[in-house]
């Protein structure tokens, strides 16, 4: 054994830590410091509308006032507001524009103008410009894909709930109108072209459709597009207005790992780890969700709920896009007291779901949303599947 063995472990490799150091408190302090002083990306979720042509029963936006779409006045003011923000924050190096809704492509006029206007804004401030869209996929036709491809299009997310009959029973249009075939046609178009590097397919899952997801994977694999698909699993949970019976973490992990095993065997790429943090876009220093009415929020899960607004494009932003409710680091205290090994990949869990779980009050922002069991089971299972 090398005489420098212990020194190597303590120093360069950092495996051993001095017993007087509280790793958990140090980690929290480094997290907050990184968030406050090293933020270089501005993430803007732009909502041209909160309206949607689908009628999904579990949608977290059900129960909100979906209001009217974005006006020309709000659109133009958003450019002016962000222009001023970049002047005041020269540390920002990247503008990440994510279209969200509702269904953003119901307002293609705003989408088209935004892609161009924000591109020009990024050029003026010498920023890297990245575009993304989260869409149900039904309106994402080739002309739309061609439009996006001219603006450094990096990501598209489309949700499927199962094979045709399952998906159409859950994610249908008005009066039960089927949507699967329209969406799948557009997925195939994207997979067989080079408009976007890959398609993120989100598999929404609860107990009623978990057994059907493998058939969807087999259907997709038969198209031979595994190399263009990135899969993720979205467990359906309660929202501010929709109460859904919670899924046990053991059940979530068991069925998710079953799906990942099938996906791997069908030559889809599967994740090698599962994380729920430590920071989300709502906690990022430079981030905002632009509502159709011009109000600004931090979390897209609170769309249409103006009590969660921290400002507006019609008013000056004080310091940065700050909502102190999402900076309540006391939510980490219990994790630190427990010396939870999953803290670096969790960070106390989702703030939004903590608020839903703990009474939807301002005080609830200080609570964590612990998913320790899910993190443990998922990561052990993924490790076994991957290696």
Present the secondary structure layout.
Blueprint: H1 5-10, H2 23-37, E1 41-46, H3 72-88, E2 94-99, H4 108-124, E3 128-134, H5 142-149, E4 153-160, H6 164-170, H7 180-191, E5 199-205, H8 213-222, E6 229-235, H9 249-265, E7 287-290, E8 295-297, E9 311-312, H10 333-337, H11 351-357, H12 372-386
Parallel strand pairs: 1-2, 1-7, 2-3, 3-4, 4-5, 5-6
Antiparallel strand pairs: 7-8, 8-9
Architecture overview:
This protein has 387 residues and is of the alpha/beta class. It has one domain: TIM Barrel (Alpha-Beta Barrel), CATH 3.20.20.70. The protein contains twelve helices and nine strands. It has a nine-stranded mixed beta sheet with strand order 6-5-4-3-2-1-7-8-9, covered by helices on one side. α8 links the parallel β5 (199-205) and β6 (229-235). The longest helix is centred in the N-terminal third of the chain and has 17 residues, at 72-88. The mean pLDDT is 93.
List keywords for this structure.
about 375 residues; alpha/beta; 12 helices; nine-stranded mixed β-sheet; single chain; TIM Barrel
CATH architecture call: Alpha-Beta Barrel
Fraction of residues in helix: 25-40%
Rg, please? Answer: 22 Å
Report the CATH superfamily: Aldolase class I
Q: What are the segments in which pLDDT stays under 50 over at least 5 consecutive residues? A: none
Q: Give the spatial strand order of the biggest sheet.
A: 6-5-4-3-2-1-7-8-9
Mean pLDDT across all amino acids: 93
Which fold does the CATH topology refer to? TIM Barrel
Count of helical regions? 12
Gross morphology: globular
What is the number of independent domains? 1
| Cα end-to-end separation | 29 Å
- The overall strand count is 9
The biggest beta sheet reads: 9 strands, mixed
CATH class: Alpha Beta
Helix and strand succession?
HHEHEHEHEHHEHEHEEEHHH
